[in-house]
Amino acid sequence: MSKINKTEVKIKIETEIQKTEKQISEYTELTRPVEPENAIGRISRMDAINNKSVTEAALRNAKEKLLKLNIALSKIDDKDFGLCINCNQAIPLGRILIMPQARTCVNCSR
């Protein structure tokens, strides 16, 4: 991968890290325990609990993505950055820009 592409990818990774950290803080706020309140009925409380479960899953995914992004950022200067970990073929720049945490090419990710 050329130096220009690595700079572009590094900027993309740093931007994604910032967005993901913001998502994590929002999801963390939304996953606080659902308190029983007199103002909401039983169905509304059940709906709030269901929404909390969905948000907890999104929080787990965001934390996993952040971990992978940080790993990608730490490995950006490695000689094998941008190569698929399975087949050692170059991962297309478009895939890296869309999913900077990707460590496999499209064929190997199937």
Tell me about this structure.
It is a single chain. The chain has 4 helices and no strands. It is mainly alpha-helical and 110 residues long. The chain has a domain at 3-78. The protein starts with a helix and ends with a helix. The model has no long low-confidence stretch (mean pLDDT 88).
Strand and helix map with partners:
Blueprint: H1 3-30, H2 42-74, H3 93-98, H4 106-109
Helix pairs in contact: 1-2
Unreliable runs = none
**Continuous helix count:** 4
Q: Structural class per helix/strand content?
A: mainly alpha
What percent strand?
A: under 5%
Number of strands: 0
Q: What's the main sheet like?
A: none
Radius of gyration over all CA atoms, rounded: 19 Å
- Helical fraction equals 55-70%
List SSEs in N-to-C order. Answer: HHHH
List descriptors.
110 residues; 65% helix; mainly alpha
Short description:
This protein has 110 residues and is mainly α. The protein is built from four helices and no strands.
